[in-house]
Amino acid sequence: MSTQDIVLIALFCAVVVALGLVPPIAIAIVPVPITLQTLGVMLAGAVLGPVRGACACALVVLLTVLGLPVLAGGRGGLGVIPGPTGGYLLGWIPGAFVTGLLVKGVATRLTGRVPQLAGYFAACVAGGLLVVYAIGVPWTSFTTGLSMGKAAVGALYFAVGDTLKAVAAAAVAHNVRRSHPIEPR
Description:
Elements: H1 3-19, H2 37-48, H3 50-65, H4 86-105, H5 113-144, H6 148-179
């Protein structure tokens, strides 16, 4: 791993943490708050590529487990993992990886601005929503005793906001990679 890789991983870890400074919004149906940190997960994968993006998210998870208050609302500690939000948090790592893989393998190979933006958006939705939810929803169901149906309905509350985050992440990542190409890993 090069010095540039380490710096970029640390930078995007800081971006995810900084997005946690925005206060979380609690919803009634599930004990998982709405935060901006998934925007950082999508950006990490889309800008850095699969490996570095996943490493940036893994670093956030490590800092959380070590007890640093890096999650929205100043949460942190090993107790987050077995809680209702633990699956979403752990889902950030493969979510960033899948986002980066799809950007690298599909979106950047498309020609034209609109098709590329659509590719970036699809990558952010696939990694930042589908993969994260695929881990987070069952985890929430298991840890809270909610049925899978209720946990899935609860996740729908996140879907609109996360789709808007995917739009923003796609636009930012496309422009960043166009103006300052970083060969993703």
